[in-house]
Model the fold of this input.
Amino acid sequence: MTRVLIVDDERAMADAMGEGLAARRLETATVFTADEAFAMLAEGEAFDVLVTDLNMRGMNGVDLCERVVRNRPDVPVIVVTAFGSLDTAVATLRAGAFDFLTKPFDMDQLAIAVERAAQHRRLREEVKRLRREAEEPIKYDELVGVSSSMKAVCRLIDRIAETDATVLVTGETGTGKELAARAIHRRSPRREAPMVTINCAAVPQNLLESELFGHVRGAFTDARTDRKGLFLAAHHGTLFLDELGDMPREMQAKLLRALEVRAVRPVGGQQELPFDVRLIAATHRDLLAGVDEGTFREDLYYRINVVELAMPPLRARGADVLLLAQSFLEQFARQHAKKVKGLSPPVAERLLAYSWPGNVRELRNGMERAVALARFEDLVVEDLPDQIRDYRASHVLVAANDPSELVSLAEVERRYVERVVQAVGGNKRQAAQILGLDRVTLYRKLERWSRGAKPSR
Done:
């Protein structure tokens, strides 16, 4: 509960403010001199906000504000007065006041100002805490985070790293699937051998077999020498197949055979060559939906998915967003020789509110841009990319009275489906169960909307 310290030498006014805020579920303490208020704060009493009158006997509100800002900068100050003027407002703000209200004011207005100040304080304290943590990074190799979802990921990596089990890393684009694969390799008995990586979506179909299995001289045009494929290059180590869901179905059959016999036949070769690798695959696609649609082999799915490691989307990782943002900020500040130290509370608020469709990769890109444009020690909202600065959460409006806010049934469906998928952290199987849809139907809807085919209003 928000704790508010109220000081006003008019007892009736002080009591009225205390009772009014208490009625709005705020915890209040009331004193009648600035000296007494400052003494309580100087002794370290825990208050989230100070509300002070301006004109009081002895120390006035401006002097009190200045002393609190110097000695307890963590406590925002709201100054209230019956003698409001532009000069008075400027004087209080120069003294460091968070807000300025003129009597008489509505008690709801005061409560809103107090809550805003308390929220500002909480965000500022969170930023400071995360900045301290960033100075002593809580890292699991290259994976950074302290959220429960990331702790679960790290615990599972610890359990599977010492085994040779095949791992399927799933998750949205930009969630750090390759970083998780590298963490598994570095903790495995194969850590001294190489980890070899290939992006199955980035290699043309006619070259993928040669990349994986190798080829012999003369197997095709330009094959002037024998070439060892990635399975053999990763011998005794780890082979990481990124974007496995984009592998052509014909190639899937050849991959399945290689995994079953633990040997590869180079393109144009007659002899099968044995290999010893630990396989880790990753995909942002729903492979079971691909099985239902016929684009992914069911037997390969069960051969690959011995252990599934699901990487959570950034929007499901809570304060990890700020921890990562601070870490990226310090990295790019060093890289670009900028004197940027941290995040302002409004920036932290925007980062926490944003949905992060591009996940950690989008955050990294946004922080590099923000640091490059920064003019102050702390990032301000204007430094952020437009899509983060201007983001507004999407809501399904059902009870709206303004016709301009109403949308079509198709648009309501899209918003609701996407909200359910977001709420379950991108788990399409769970989302399909909640929505009462089969996976294929859900997968097709999301694919259509991701291509920009959204319903009109």
Summary: The chain has four domains: 3-134, 148-310, 314-389, 403-450. Residues 247 and 450 are 20 Å apart (CA to CA). Residues 107-135 form the longest helix (29 residues). The first strand starts at residue 3 and ends at 7.
